[in-house]
Amino acid sequence: MSELPSLVIVLSRFPYPLEKGDKLRSYYQIRELTNRYAIHLIAISDVVVKESDVKELEQYCKTITIYKISKWSILFNSSMALLGNKPIQVGYFYNYFIYRKIQKQLEKIKPTHIFSQLIRTTEYTKNYLDCPKTLDYMDAFSKGFERRAEKAPWYSKWFYELEHRRLLVYERIMFDYFDKKTIISEQDKRYIFHPEREKIICVPNGIDESFFESNNRKKEYDFVFVGNMNYPPNIEAVTYIIKEILPTFSSSKFLIAGANPHPKLKRLAEQNPMITVSGWMEDIRDAYASAKVFLAPMKTGTGMQNKLLEAMAMGLPCITSTLANNAIGAVNKESIVVCDSTETAIIALNLLLQNESERTRIGQAGSEFVKQHFSWETSTKKLI
Asked: For the CA atoms of the chain, what is the radius of gyration?
């Protein structure tokens, strides 16, 4: 049997546990790619990675190297980026000494191909010329920062505007360093302002088959939101639910589930006994299964909302915004409910909470839609 071609994958986070979108995407892609490539995983990490998390990836990777960046490195290199012209988040994940070590690694491995996830990792791989390289933009970061700048308070608006401008330029420049480019959705592709952006291949996320299995947990909550609860667009969406929607449903129970809940959300929850903040859950399917409706009124952010795909796969009727649904492409009032105002969201939520047959209809249609269109096996074949 011939030896598998070697694939070096460079990430800005270790891809386990699955509490963030970029980690979830890279984990499932690695799991699918392992049968076609000898995978050499290189991960930059700003936190200590648990041995048990490394073991989870060892079954899929030939080698795993984790480079821990210190707080001093983050502070120094972010400051250098701020004083220079690179996006600050690129500086955050860059370290010259790690760069030198990765170059030596690449010379030793002699990879058949290099796969860099997110522009945060491109400084480590862009100048390696001995094999083809692919950049997974994943999201259009520049658009995300533009949206956040529009709503940021005056004292932080300058930062988001500055990062937005730098990301616009950097995303365009990095295009030419890589042979192939991928992104998560057609919507995000439109925001990469390179004259040849049509060459970017859309590789959507998928859903693990376990989300289609039945989960008979009791419906303890009326509606739920799931996500990384320290991520600004998620904080914004949940704050909006609590302040604008929840007062109309004062007797309804609301579950906020996901890693790293922001102190602001904890404070809001403490003021209302009908709100539960669970924090990290070992099996996030339990959060979805314990509610009647999934509510995700996303106002900012980019990419594909995997939380919506997971909820839909489990047969949970979903109410979301046009912004979030554009990347998914579900049909309004058939497999999903799209609302862009507080009034329409309240009407839709009231209808679903009171009508079990309508919840079942939309939930089943949503599950079938995800099953037909979002598979890790299918999307990774496109990547291969």
From this structure: 21
Q: Among residues 272, 227, 228, which one has the least CA distance to residue 252?
A: 272
> Which tens digit of pLDDT belongs to each residue from 30-73?
999 999 999 999 999 999 999 999 999 999 999 999 999 999 99
Domains of the chain by range and CATH? 6-203 (3.40.50.11720), 209-373 (3.40.50.2000)
Helices 21-33 and 306-313 meet at what angle, rounded to 10?
Answer: 70
The helix/strand/coil state of 84 is coil
C-beta of residue 250 within 8 angstroms of C-beta of residue 351: no
What gap in Å lies between CA 150 and CA 276, rounded to an integer? Answer: 30
Q: Where are the alpha helices (DSSP H) in 152-280?
A: 154-175, 186-189, 232-240, 263-270
List C-alpha distances in Å: 155 to 158, 160, 233, 299, 345.
Answer: 7, 10, 18, 21, 31
pTM, entire model: 0.90
Q: What is the pLDDT of residue 1?
A: 46
